[in-house]
Input
Amino acid sequence: MAIVVELTCYPIKGCAGVPQSEVLLTEAGLQHDRGFMVIGEDGECRTQRRDPRLAVIRPAIDRHGTRLTLSAPGEDEVAIDIDTTSARREVTVFGTPYLGIDQGEDAATWLSRFLGAPSRLVRVPPEHDRVTDGWIPGTCGYADSAAVHIVSRASLDGLNERIAEAGGAPLPMNRFRPGIVIGGWHEPHREDRVRRIAVGGAELGFAKHTARCAVTTVDQSAGVKAGPEPLRTMAGYRRGPDGATLFGCQFSVIRAGKLAVGDEVDVIEWDGPPPGE
Output
């Protein structure tokens, strides 16, 4: 039986994840997921590709969803009231324009000091209506491409076996920053063939396979680049038709609802015949 074994929300794009035991899945993904992002002076998002220290910035949102606290090693915390009403400004995610609400000088000063470069924090406006593409389209906040990223534990186990065969050390799941981790499947990459799933009170539809980038080489606990893995190993067996290295899948939200660790994952539709257990 397939079940949810991990749920992780990433309130600020590129920053540390917040483990959840239960969470509301909204049309845009896990509640608060990628609802904020750090931008440079030009309005373009900062990511771990260029700023790996983002990984150790830990955001916390209070239960009312009105106050955000930022913490990081060696830094005093800063807490701000979340602004959803101020003037919108232009921001970009890999060159695609969106709008954001600047979260003020306290957050900007803290981030600029920690990252060593002028930075500001913005929030998705309430009217944000981004449409994502894929097999089943949907919406999301400032995520790269879709509302929910899903990886199975079996996929990571299979990858780590290959890395070990080459003399390398196993990698943790957080290198891939998934929102939902599924356990109970014995075959690696079974998520590649899922097209619709029901889990908890929600339903999700396949959007696309996830193309991996240099963020997977960042040690998420230290905020530093840590060598060629897993890209080196994945390049040998996980190339897509266009040459991209694939691991995990992106899903759109068909029906919002509550999710919890331990929820059974019911595959409603497969790509092709259902696999044998």
